[in-house]
């Protein structure tokens, strides 16, 4: 068997939850990180990072990408080779766009390639879910598209969620971070029956709204009682940006992942107006944000 000396993996950003689908649904977006691993003859670990906020990424063994790389070698019970890692950052850190999922998926996929592909895609995905703690970012980061994940008696059932071509995801990324662990700490551990029923109904409606692009369904579906009511307070300007997005024609607005990025869904005819409205509302609240209309990424992690 020939030994691969280097591997480059692109992994897309993801938006998780989509309102009522807390911890179970997510979509890959057309924004990505690139990770290159080069096997070294000797030495330990070298990490180079380029791109916006590069200085915020750890360059020692605590780096999450490297931790994922080690995890795969641990799983197959082999000694990891010394490596040089080159990271080109396209996904902003700790903003609710799945940066940690890109690192976990990138490290696992690269290690599996360098090790000669000992594990199947399903095995690698299950390790990724276990590392992240929930499936909604790592699954679409790995296989692309919009995906719903549910446990079964034997593991995970992953289902593709059709996304109508008219629906545009507009992301408003503010200039402050919110770590997922902090945004999970504010959530209650128990919920009422009424809230559980509310989210079950709205997630069902969301799935049909995404598939059909039907405005009435999407407008009603993008509501949630499990996480957003508790997290809103961590995101200054949330209500103003929401009101502005809807007034400009968005079907609705939700927190992307754990936040602070806000995600509006709009049809193609309104997405530019929604972009402008969200940026302006945040500016009025004293926050600079990068606002962009993206598209669904259908490739997932790609080995170049
Ligand atoms: N390219 C990367 N290389 C190494 N570590 C990374 C990389 N990107 C993110 N991380 C790690 O993940 C952390 C951010 O994870 P966190 O879960 O808080 O946010 P997120 O994944 O961007 O948001 P969300 O989970 O809400 O979508 C960073 O602080 C860093 O430790
Ligand atoms: N479902 C996760 C996504 C962020 O990792 C959350 O909202 O906490």
From TrEMBL:
Catalysed reactions, as listed in the record: L-homoserine + ATP = O-phospho-L-homoserine + ADP + H(+)
Subcellular location as annotated: Cytoplasm
Domain of life of the source: Bacteria
PANTHER family with a match to the protein in the record: HOMOSERINE KINASE, HOMOSERINE/4-DIPHOSPHOCYTIDYL-2-C-METHYL-D-ERYTHRITOL KINASE
Similarity field: Belongs to the GHMP kinase family. Homoserine kinase subfamily.
GO CC annotations, alphabetized: cytoplasm
Keywords attached to this entry: Amino-acid biosynthesis, ATP-binding, Cytoplasm, Kinase, Nucleotide-binding, Threonine biosynthesis, Transferase
GO molecular function: ATP binding; homoserine kinase activity
Pfam families (UniProt xref): GHMP_kinases_C, GHMP_kinases_N
Protein name: Homoserine kinase
Enzyme class: transferase
GO biological process, one term: threonine biosynthetic process
Classification lineage: Bacteria, Bacillati, Cyanobacteriota, Cyanophyceae, Nostocales
Domain (GHMP kinase C-terminal) ranges: 208-283
Positions bound to ATP: 92-102
The keyword Transferase is assigned to this record: yes
Database matches in InterPro entries: GHMP_kinase_C_dom, GHMP_kinase_C_sf, GHMP_kinase_N_dom, GHMP_knse_ATP-bd_CS, Homoserine_kinase, Ribosomal_Su5_D2-typ_SF, Ribsml_uS5_D2-typ_fold_subgr
Segments forming domain GHMP kinase N-terminal: 63-145
UniProt pathway annotation: Amino-acid biosynthesis; L-threonine biosynthesis; L-threonine from L-aspartate: step 4/5
EC code: 2.7.1.39
């Amino acid at each position: 068997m020939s030994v691969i000396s280097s591997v480059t993996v692109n992994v897309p950003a993801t938006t998780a939850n989509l309102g009522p689908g807390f911890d179970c649904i997510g979509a890959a977006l057309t924004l990505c990180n690139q990770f290159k691993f080069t096997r070294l003859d000797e030495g330990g670990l070298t990490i180079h990072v380029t791109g916006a906020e590069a200085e915020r990424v750890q360059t020692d063994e605590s780096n999450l990408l490297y931790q994922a790389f080690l995890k795969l070698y641990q799983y197959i019970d082999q000694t990891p080779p010394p490596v040089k890692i080159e990271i080109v950052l396209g996904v902003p850190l700790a903003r609710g766009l799945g940066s940690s999922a890109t690192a976990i998926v990138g490290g696992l996929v690269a290690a599996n390639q360098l090790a000669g592909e000992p594990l199947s895609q399903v095995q690698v995905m299950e390790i990724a879910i276990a590392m992240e703690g929930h499936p909604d970012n790592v699954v679409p980061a790995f296989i692309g598209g919009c995906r719903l994940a549910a446990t079964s008696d034997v593991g995970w059932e992953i289902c593709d969620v059709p996304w109508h071509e008219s629906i545009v995801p507009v992301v408003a990324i503010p200039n402050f971070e919110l770590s997922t662990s902090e945004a999970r700490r504010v959530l209650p551990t128990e919920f009422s029956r009424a809230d559980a029923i509310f989210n079950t109904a709205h997630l069902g409606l969301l799935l049909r709204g995404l598939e059909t692009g039907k405005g009435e369904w999407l407008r009603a579906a993008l509501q949630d009682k499990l996480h957003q009511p508790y997290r809103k307070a961590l995101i200054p300007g949330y209500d103003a940006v929401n009101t502005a997005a809807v007034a400009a024609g968005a079907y609705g607005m939700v927190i992307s992942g754990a936040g602070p990025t806000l995600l509006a869904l709009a049809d193609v005819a309104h997405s530019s107006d929604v972009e402008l409205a969200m940026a302006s509302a945040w500016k009025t609240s004293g926050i600079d944000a990068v606002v962009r209309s993206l598209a669904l990424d259908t490739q997932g992690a790609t080995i170049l």
